Amino acid sequence: MPINELIHSLSKMPGVGSRSAQRIALYLLKNDKIAVAQLITVLQDVYEKVHKCENCGNFSTARICNICADPARDATQLCIVETVSDLWALERAKFFRGRYHVLGGVLSAIDNIGPDNLNIKELLARMQREKIEEVIVALSATLEGQSTLFYLMDVLEPFHVRVSSLAQGVPIGGELNYMDNATLSTAFQDRRLLAS
Ligand SMILES: [Zn+2]
Fold first, then answer.
1. Mean pLDDT of 39-44
2. What gap in Å lies between CA 51 and CA 9, rounded to an integer?
3. What separation in Å is there between the alpha carbon of 56 and the centre of ligand 1?
4. What is the Å distance from ligand 1's center to 67 Cα?
């Protein structure tokens, strides 16, 4: 039954339980067909046209994303984030003018996520290729985030760049995405220098 399949697919989305999934499905069925057709087109467009930037891991419709391709961005500062939603949070706050590298997660023994599961190889290639002077590690203040920070300090050591991490103020276990712009900006400005 297509309706059940729709409800099932919707209920797998973050923040959508089975009851919300039913409500959305009913809304779509009640709605006129043009609105549903538009939604189908948008979904198809996203599916076909949006890829990961080959350089930083951000989403992009081109091979290289807008941020990496922007000559006005400061190429000497690289901010490492866990996910694209963290990148969006920092862009929303509009104070960082450098570039990003999306790790794709953090190291986690429990979830079996090791360095090979993250975009670390790509990071090291960039360190060699680009003229990066400071790496700002903006990971969550979780245990996994912290051990990932130590791991990054290790692998970045041979490049002799400044390494800093966000100041206290990042909620424990909190994601950057949930921080307001002012707190995020302060945590960024007051970042701790860990290696130079
Ligand atoms: Zn990029």
1. 94
2. 22
3. 4
4. 6
Show the tokens assigned to 44: 């198809």
CA of 140 relative to ligand 1 center, distance in Å:
21
What is the 63 CA–ligand 1 centroid distance (Å)? 8
In angstroms, what is the span from residue 155 Cα to ligand 1's centroid?
21
Q: Are the C-beta atoms of residues 65 and 52 closer than 8 Å to each other?
A: no
Residue 158 has which token pair?
Answer: 């041979």
Q: How far is the CA of 115 from the centre of ligand 1 (A)?
A: 20
Q: What is the fold of 72-195?
A: Dna Topoisomerase Vi A Subunit; Chain: A, domain 2 (3.40.1360)
**Nearest CA to 132 among 74, 191, 58?**
74
- Which residues fall inside 5 Å of ion ligand 1, going by CB? 53, 55-56, 58, 65, 68
pTM of the model: 0.84
What are the pLDDT digits (tens) for 77-136?
A: 999 999 999 999 899 989 999 999 999 999 999 999 999 999 999 999 999 999 999 999
Domain 2-49, CATH among 1.10.8.420, 3.40.50.1240, 1.10.3720.10, 3.30.70.20: 1.10.8.420
